[in-house]
Hints:
Elements: H1 4-11, E1 13-16, E2 24-27, H2 29-33, H3 35-46, E3 60-64, H4 67-79, E4 82-88, E5 96-103, E6 106-113, E7 122-130, H5 134-145, E8 149-158, H6 164-167, E9 173-178
Parallel strand pairs: 3-4, 3-7, 7-8, 8-9
Antiparallel strand pairs: 1-2, 4-6, 5-6
Helix pairs in contact: 1-3, 3-4
Amino acid sequence: MRSLEQVLADGIRDIPDYPQPGVVFKDITPLLADHTGFAQVVEALAAAGTDDDGNPVVDKVVGIEARGFILAAPVALALGAGFVPVRKKGKLPAATYEESYALEYGEATIEVHQDAFAPGDRVLVIDDVLATGGTVEACLRLIRRCEAEVVGTAVLLELSFLPGRKRLEGEHVSSLLTV
């Protein structure tokens, strides 16, 4: 069996100048197409929602739109937890809470259903990439607004040259690969 490091090296490819010149996009579609590798990644991400003995310690797993959904749903299944989507504004049908955050080029807003969590639910947040940390930070505010407890955040890939981890100082954040 390949190591997790090899799975990630084989499954994440760089696409230069996408979606705009100067950006190197991290494409995870080869990883998603590799059943064995994808299963290893799901298992590794799910570990962030377990105690030292490997027992699940979360009630819900949040996936942040859009690639976070792909990773979070199987993590929720692996942990025996519910899955909660955090979506871009206007995509959820019932009453929502919303949080806005700054981007380099403007502002964005994410939402969660007001009834997505019970007070005291223990929540693990899953996303594909930690970059500036703005999306994750807004997501954590949403969860806490619902009176749920954030157990941690796990990401597939962390971009160390951006301030995401610093912005989330004091939060439990784990990444499978840091570049």
